[in-house]
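For homework, think about our next protein:
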Amino acid sequence: MTRQDSLLLVLLMALWGFNFSVIKLGVNNIDPFLLTALRFSLAVLPLIFFVRRPNVPWRYLMAYGLTFGVGVWGLTTLSVSAGLSSGLASLLLDMSVISSLLVGRYLLKEHVTVSKVLGSVLALIGLGLIIWHQDATVTPLGIALVLSASVFWSINGLIVKRSGTRAVFAFNIWGMAFAPIPLFVLALCVSGPSSVMQSIADINGSVLFSAAFQAYPTTLLGYWFWNKMIVKYSVSSVAPMTLLVPVFALIGGYIFFGESLDVVQAIAAVIILLGVAVSEIKLPARRAVIAKAG
């Protein structure tokens, strides 16, 4: 990997990490589902009118919109609104290492290596420490929501893989078009029509900045560059960079909202990040602990 691409990837990880603080800024001013609906509305319109629909069945686009827009980011945004700190939300979203292992094993019939199992065990130990040692930055509802989001992250990857699309950017745009309406309906169901209408009336500069930051640099620019790097280099070279996202998210939470980790949470964070790093280690096929089914 060239030095320039490495630097750009680090900057992208910083962008994605600080995005969690931007999410918190938004949910402090507006309904979380409504904020996420606004994010994906801005990301899709008017760009969708200039991007050709990818040649995949509609069911994949709809499923992607629901899992990515509602499942991943709707629930993650709601977890921050439910009291989870922005830094921990980013960190616990990495628990997708466990659900990805299960999806790969039982749905894609992939080998499960020693590194995947060990990484998942370490991540679970870190999660256990956070659950055991709760404080004002951790709420049971917040943890449950972001862990659910991490499962949807794995399902989201499965959908993209099963679709067989090569037009990833177009797939993202057309898939995200199915996110805003369900998110708006969820806002109505959870918060009630009067609360949603009041949130719309209270939209201010902070809300617009939060939604626009999530839509343009984070989603459109970020995922475009990420997919470009995935195509240019091997996944094993690029994927470990995502370990920097929670680091920058924790830094952003401290700078902008005064969030900090106590000793136990810091140890848990290191263990989870170590687990994710270990799970990315590529071992020879003969080291697989579970042979490919069939």
